[in-house]
Amino acid sequence: MHRLTRQIRFSVDPFGNEGDAEGFNSYCSKPAGHGLGFFICLNVELQGSVQADTGFLINLAEIDAKARTEAVNIYKKRIQQMISAGKNVTLEKNAEILMECWEGLRRSFNPQKLSSLEQLVNPYKKITISGDSNMLLYSEKFEFAATHKLWNENFSEHKNFEQFGKCANPQGHGHNYVVEITAEPENWKDFDRFDFQKKVKKLFIDKLDHKNLSKDLEYYKQHNPTVENITVHCWQTLSGKLKGARLESVRIWENDRAYCTYRGEQE
Ligand SMILES: Nc1nc2c(c(=O)[nH]1)N=C([C@H](O)[C@H](O)COP(=O)(O)OP(=O)(O)OP(=O)(O)O)CN2
């Protein structure tokens, strides 16, 4: 079984009174919109078998055509309705729109199965519907900078350098970590995104930011500050602490080539 993802980028003119600017560049945005509008970016993930004759799970052009017909119309209709009624497109409304697209798109694909639909609200924030669990999830990225040294006191110096290489450098080395926290809100209407941000920042990010993890934090006296252990530390710190939401996963990037995801011990 394969999973194939296509990103669909389009713009919605909130007032809709200039007509559709279709545009010719789907890499940028198609429909292209007018001036400053709503830019929508959807990741459509399909699951299925690859056909022997074409090598396709499905032709990307077919995903484009279906997603553009279904999703563009839903976003356009719902955004324009809300704006003309003088209402904000809140996070709750945005989640409802995504759910409507999910239902529509799910019916459009066969035999391929829509396995996930993700809206990148901005480069650091997304809403995801996953077909595996049918969960509607909210994710946000944070960052912190820290220094660390990878070392095990029970190893000889030789073994430490053999195991950890340059990461065992006595003076340590630094990273700009990116932390993505994903939560499942119990109720999107009451989900307090700012409380979520405040908790993640206060309980985790601020404790590690601009610190020497190996020296300044008790946790890392017992645990080597690898990206795997930092992810578990983050999970343990935040699990059960988010108001009106269940912590679903923690993903931490040590750099843009390495990240670790943790969903608790039960996974
Ligand atoms: N399983 C893990 N392996 C390594 C971790 C880790 O947290 N978990 N961490 C490190 C070091 O912290 C290191 O700084 C990161 O390694 P690497 O990406 O290899 O370092 P560079 O960016 O300098 O990459 P080069 O290809 O070596 O230039 C190591 N391993």
Automatic annotation (TrEMBL):
Enzyme class: lyase
Gene Ontology MF annotations: 6-carboxytetrahydropterin synthase activity; metal ion binding
Pathway assigned in UniProt: Purine metabolism; 7-cyano-7-deazaguanine biosynthesis
Keywords: Lyase, Metal-binding, Zinc
EC number annotated for this UniProt entry: 4.1.2.50
Cofactor or coenzyme needed: Zn(2+)
Reaction(s) catalysed (UniProt annotation): 7,8-dihydroneopterin 3'-triphosphate + H2O = 6-carboxy-5,6,7,8-tetrahydropterin + triphosphate + acetaldehyde + 2 H(+)
Keyword Ribosomal protein: no
Gene3D superfamilies: 6-pyruvoyl tetrahydropterin synthase/QueD (3.30.479.10)
Cited SUPFAM superfamilies: Tetrahydrobiopterin biosynthesis enzymes-like
InterPro entries (alphabetical): 6-PTP_synth/QueD, 6-PTP_synth/QueD_sf
PANTHER family xref list: 6-PYRUVOYL TETRAHYDROBIOPTERIN SYNTHASE (PTHR12589:SF7), PYRUVOYL TETRAHYDROBIOPTERIN SYNTHASE (PTHR12589)
Family, per entry: Belongs to the PTPS family. QueD subfamily.
Record's protein name: 6-carboxy-5,6,7,8-tetrahydropterin synthase
Lineage, broadest ranks: Bacteria, Pseudomonadati, Planctomycetota, Phycisphaerae, Sedimentisphaerales
